[in-house]
Specification:
This protein is of the alpha/beta class. The protein has helices at residues 46-51, 61-66, 70-75, 79-83, 95-100, 127-137, 155-175, 193-204, 222-232, 250-259, 268-274, 306-309, 314-322, 326-353, 356-359; strands at 4-9, 16-22, 25-29, 31-34, 57-60, 89-92, 105-108, 111-115, 122-125, 141-143, 182-187, 210-213, 242-244, 263-266, 277-280, 283-286. The strands form four sheets. Strands 4-14-13-12-11-10-6-5 form an eight-stranded parallel sheet. It is globular. It starts with a strand and ends in a 14-residue tail after the last helix.
Length: 373
Amino acid sequence: MFGFEISAHCANTAARCGCFHTPHGPVHTPRFMPVGTLATVKGISTDQLARTGAQMVLSNTYHLHLQPGEEIVAAAGGLHRFMGWDGPMLTDSGGFQVFSLGDLNKIDDRGVVFRNPRDGRIIDMTPEHATQIQMALGADVAMAFDQCPPYTATENDVIDACRRTHAWLARCVEAHSRDNQALFGIVQGGCFPHLRRESARAVADFDLPGIAVGGVSVGEPVEEMHRIVRDVTPLLPTHKPRYLMGIGTLREMAVAVASGIDLFDCVLPTRLGRHGTALVGGERWNLRNARFRHDHTPLDPSCPCPTCSGGHTRAYLNHLIRSEELLGLTLLSLHNITHLLRFTTAISKAIRDGCFSEDFAPWEPDSPAHHTW
């Protein structure tokens, strides 16, 4: 039910193409996954989302537990029916969100106690509770509850976080009983190479259907992120999908693919869209700028998204953003998601065609691959 098949390798790097099978269909890798935190990719309907080429979509356990509650989602028939998405889905455990409320929580080996920011009630989140919530939500993939330390954490703090993450993973595995849902473990370890290596080996030993690298993009320099990915990925099982959490920039995805990463997620495309910014040719364009007011050309003539192919010009998008019309935010978000999906699709083609290591750097204007997507 959750098999992973590798169909092509790069001869000069660890990049590979694969297919992750789920109960709601295949996910072809490398692949960017749009984030739909509250059972919705912000400002976009599921029909619109399908037109971007999205395959797997994320939602968040923490936020859905607070609103509307997993009982309501389960009563609707699960997350897929609740939001009307027929494709594969993944739920993050909510660990990152819980720990980002540092002034509101109490962390110990049992779990985390925090105050609901919506109504002030006390919530006791243990690995078992996080797993039960995700089983009720019913996504194809559930993530283990882990402790994600900030970049500024000391080595002793990261040691404690790794110890808890591994112990909590064992409890998540024990609590998880849904056959049609895969449980992924998460590698932590901060920026300490020996802790990353220990965590990679510990999580891999559970032999779960997939494995994720967490605790990146939490404030560390981008070069440090690259080092972590290069060091950790070779230690992960080759026959399981590898998921780099919270990454969605072109250069970082390409560098990670070269190390053998398969899956990515990030809120970047919709967040930029909501702020009037479009991703075009690897650049970020602020559509509020006056230079677009009289530009009656498509945002990106090569892009097949509903925004670019639907006759919406740069001048029109400039007007919508300046007028604070919601349609402008939706159109930019649709384009940005498509942009990242096209990028990972182009990476797959480059791997299959044997040219990934030679020329795949589409964020650089002089790259031969710049013209292929």
